[in-house]
Design goal:
This protein is 31% helix and 16% strand. It is of the alpha/beta class. The protein has a six-stranded mixed β-sheet with strand order 4-5-13-10-11-12, sandwiched between helices. It has a four-stranded parallel β-sheet with strand order 8-7-6-9, sandwiched between helices. The protein is globular and about 50 Å long. The N and C termini lie far apart (52 Å). The model has no long low-confidence stretch (mean pLDDT 94). This is Threonine synthase.
């Protein structure tokens, strides 16, 4: 169902520009492309509900009715921002492994499941390499929603166990991460597809990390944000969130978005280097940074546009630098999975390339806990 431009209430838009009411269950446009919310106005510091010690303190930045209904929450957000120095550059590390299920995915899933429950959906389908699935499992358990999750057979057993203990129905699927995503789309006709890669409300939750970083820095924006990217939801979340803050007059500029991918699977980096507007399909090698091993991101066009629009950059990290980076962060007291740890060699490569220097205020996001990747870390 498309809607005219004069309709009231939050509006979703597909790539053709067709508009849809946001209060109806929908995970993609009629043209088969991903949906985004029409740009929202953002909020300032006066609209923060300081009585709430979770990301829902920024609920006024969410599209209606989410700003006014009871959320499905486990206390996600309000994660530490700590400063560490790498080769003379001070970096604020946003420790998203401190979220309830151990990754930043809780931000988006909390908002997505809140929307799904409000729309009366009691059974959902998800596909995940681990973190997204365990988050959907936990929040669906909280909301009383049946969760059915397709997982690559090679996924960390810790992530699968977590999802199963939350009560989700887990099905292991052989093949690549992309093959699992393709299978989920095929099954979406029979079960509502609450995909963290497709569902537009997921990005509305992830965008709140931008508001939180802004508050962490004394209501200032960093000059650059560095994130690992697979599907690119953190890229888009930062672009949306900081974009709203800029429209609201709360910051005077949007930070550059810097992206790290493992060289064994770096479709976004390759597209950036080749000046392409979308990712070309190709085969990639396996990588220990399994959370970023996505060969064909659903929102590739939007992610590439967000990086370029911010004046950002993307770098690929060799596989032999990933596990040593886990050890380096662990010796600083931070235990994260290889997907997260890649930001350390990425920082060094970005400095060598002249993309960052000591004058920058940099925030790098540590996306997930090392406790979920024990099978990969025995030799670190």
């Amino acid at each position: 169902m498309s809607v005219p431009a004069s309709s009231h209430g939050p509006i979703l838009i597909d790539r053709t520009g067709r508009r849809y009411p946001a209060d109806q269950p929908r995970w993609r446009g009629d043209d088969g492309t991903p949906l985004v919310f029409e740009p929202l106005s953002g909020i300032g510091r006066q609209q923060i509900d300081t009585a709430i010690n979770s990301q829902w303190r920024y609920r006024s930045a969410l599209p209606n009715p989410l700003a006014h209904i009871d959320p499905v929450t486990l206390g996600e957000g309000r994660t530490p921002l700590i400063t560490r120095t790498f080769d003379g550059i001070d970096v604020g590390l946003k420790v998203e492994s401190m979220n309830p299920t151990g990754s930043f995915k809780d931000r988006g899933v909390s908002v997505m499941v809140t929307a799904v429950r409000h729309q009366g959906i009691d059974r959902v389908l998800e596909d995940s390499s681990g973190n997204g699935g365990s988050s959907v499992a936990a929040y669906c358990a909280t909301a009383g929603i049946e969760a059915n999750i397709l997982v690559p057979a090679a996924t960390s057993s810790n992530k699968i166990i977590q999802s199963r203990l939350h009560g989700a129905n887990i099905e292991l699927v052989s093949g690549t991460r992309q093959a699992v995503a393709d299978e989920a789309v095929r099954r979406a006709e029979t079960c509502f597809y609450a995909s963290h890669n497709w569902h537009p409300h997921f990005l509305q939750g992830v965008k709140l990390i931008a508001y939180e970083i802004w508050e962490d820095l004394g209501f200032r924006a960093p000059t650059a944000v560095l994130v690992p990217a697979g599907a690119g939801s953190l890229v888009l979340g930062c672009a949306i969130g900081f974009g709203e803050l800029h429209r609201a007059g709360a910051i005077d500029r949007v930070p550059r978005i810097l992206v790290s991918q493992p060289r064994n699977c770096c479709p976004l980096v390759t597209a950036m280097e080749q000046g392409r507007q979308e990712v070309l399909e190709q085969s990639w090698s396996t990588t220990s940074a399994e959370g970023t091993a996505i060969a064909k991101p659903v929102r590739d066009r939007e992610v590439l546009q967000a990086i370029r629009g911010s004046g950002g950059a993307a770098v690929a990290v060799p596989e032999d630098e990933l596990l040593p980076a886990v050890g380096e962060l662990a010796r600083l007291g931070l235990f994260v999975e290889p997907t997260s740890a890649q930001i350390v060699p990425a920082l060094r490569r970005l400095r060598t390339a002249g993309e960052i220097d000591t004058a920058d205020t940099i925030v790098a996001v540590l996306t997930g806990s090392g406790l979920k990747a024990g099978h990969l870390l025995a030799t670190v």
